[in-house]
Design brief:
This protein is α/β, with parallel strands linked by helices. It is about 30% helix and about 15% strand. The chain folds into three domains: about 350 residues, TIM Barrel, CATH 3.20.20; about 30 residues, no CATH class; about 30 residues, no CATH class. α12 crosses α13. The termini are far apart. Bound molecules: pyridoxal-5'-phosphate. Pyridoxal-5'-phosphate binds next to β2.
Length: about 450
């Protein structure tokens, strides 16, 4: 079995003693952010130089470990593109937004995003080990002046205590693993005191930017708060080093199930063959590919965007072609706060009342004969059917299928289809907006 590559160090770090290189505090305090620093490691292009000298661009900072993974002479290096800015970041594009997922509107208290019925996203810091150029939260991330304080934290805990439907808390930011260990431990302790919180998850790119942070001591601390899950963020096989493999091994041994979330990025990982290698390498280090995200419509990320079709093509090239464990869900996080929407190739081709026609990954088309006498379980005696019901407005298509509701209709639907009344209103007020042309914001 080939072992993962042992990551090299950029030549300027050749003389750094191992105990410093392997100390995460040294990595954090030696991050690179200026033209002068970065130029000592990479041959910069004009576009990169210009972006690095521009004021007001999203924060740049890279750990010595991560910048060392880049081929210094290759301007198209896939790791480089993720963390070194280029002048295209300054280009606006149609439908670009500052807060494309409408997270601020879903925040009952600062830093807590309650978008889904049973789980919340808790933003615990604005700081990261290094900064991804396509950051979906660039409106707040990176700014040390905007970081969440104790008062915000108390408000977040307070909201969670009085919101019993929340059973899953996802810690993100920023990156929770750059918090001071004591603070992270306190935060987890306080969350664990809330009885209805069943699972805690952490989203972190620290294992990728700075695997030396994943010490045995940190893993022992995290293991006190089980069930605890963690998602890392790897976009390209070049990020899977021996150091990352060892960090993941320590976390897995501490009982933390690991997943990966990638973002589909033009020129970085928009290749089905590269994606197959990526997901296979991830499963080898016991990291299960979880989501592959379509790039959000966030400022500065226009040059990274791919057509949605690229994601479908990638899933087409993975499902069936490799282990099911290795296949992520391709997700479009709907702009305007619509939430995560899975998108995939069509495998169901047609159906009649007794047959469905399906196709597999090879293009083999076949039929599945439906049962002639299907006896459903009895919802009236089923204790699951009788107990927990979703919040009003959250039943979705399930509410249509189980017969409680007959339709879901867009806002103003009744007015539009009551044409007689509409004529009067149109005369009265000239501000009628036709259906289908909204502001891009579902709740406005
Ligand atoms: C992504 C996200 C979650 C978690 O979603 P899962 O599909 O359960 O992983 C929760 N809240 C918000 C606001 C999110 O963006």
């Amino acid at each position: 079995m080939p072992t993962p590559i042992i990551s090299k160090r950029a030549p300027i770090y050749a003389d750094v003693p191992d105990e410093k290189w392997n100390d995460w505090r040294w990595q954090l305090s030696h991050r690179l952010n200026s033209v002068e620093d970065i130029e000592k490691v990479l041959s910069l292009t004009e576009s990169e130089r210009k972006a690095l000298q521009t004021q007001g661009l999203f924060r740049v900072d890279v750990t010595p470990y991560f910048i060392s993974l880049i081929d210094p002479e290759d301007p198209n290096d896939p790791v480089r593109k993720q963390i070194i800015p280029v002048s295209e970041e300054m280009n606006a594009f149609t439908s670009m937004m500052e807060d494309s997922l409408a997270e601020d509107r879903h925040s009952p208290v600062p830093g807590l995003v309650h978008r889904y019925p049973d789980r919340v996203l808790m933003l615990v810091t604005t700081q990261c080990a290094s900064y991804c150029r396509y950051c979906t939260r660039s409106r707040i991330v990176g700014d040390p002046g905007q970081t969440f304080n104790r008062q915000d934290f108390e408000l977040q805990i307070d909201y969670l205590k009085r919101t019993p439907q929340v059973r899953d808390v996802l810690l993100s930011g920023g990156d929770p693993l750059v918090l001071a260990p004591k603070i992270l431990e306190e935060l987890l302790t306080r969350l664990r005191e809330i009885p209805h919180i069943e699972i805690v998850r952490i989203g972190s790119r620290v294992p990728v930017f700075m695997p030396m942070r994943i010490t045995q001591e940190l893993c022992d601390m995290l293991a006190k708060f089980h069930p605890l899950w963690l998602n890392i963020h790897v976009n390209h096989p070049n990020e899977i080093t021996k150091e990352l493999a060892e960090a993941c091994d320590r976390m897995s041994r501490a009982g933390i199930p690991l997943g990966n979330q990638s973002v589909l990025l033009a020129g970085v990982n928009d290749c089905v063959h590269m994606q197959r290698e990526l997901v296979q390498k991830l499963t080898r280090i016991r990291v299960r590919p979880y989501y592959l995200y379509q790039c959000d419509l966030v400022e500065g990320s226009g040059h990274f965007r791919t057509p949605v079709a690229k994601g479908i093509e990638i899933i087409e090239g993975l499902r069936g072609h490799t282990s099911g464990y290795a296949v992520p869900q391709f997700i479009v996080d709907a702009p305007g706060g619509g939430g995560k929407i899975p998108v995939m190739p069509n495998y169901m081709l047609s159906m009649s009342d007794h047959k469905v026609i399906v196709r597999n990954y090879e293009g083999y088309v076949t039929t599945y004969e439906e049962p002639t006498e299907y006896k459903s379980h009895d919802p009236k005696t089923c204790k699951f059917c009788q107990s927990k019901r979703p919040e009003p407005g959250q039943t979705g298509l399930t509410g249509l299928l189980d017969g409680e509701e007959m339709f879901i209709k867009p806002e103003h639907f009744d007015e539009l289809h009551n044409r007689d009344g509409l004529q009067h209103r149109l005369k009265d007020e000239n501000k009628w907006k036709p259906l289908g042309i909204g502001s891009g914001d579902l709740n406005k």
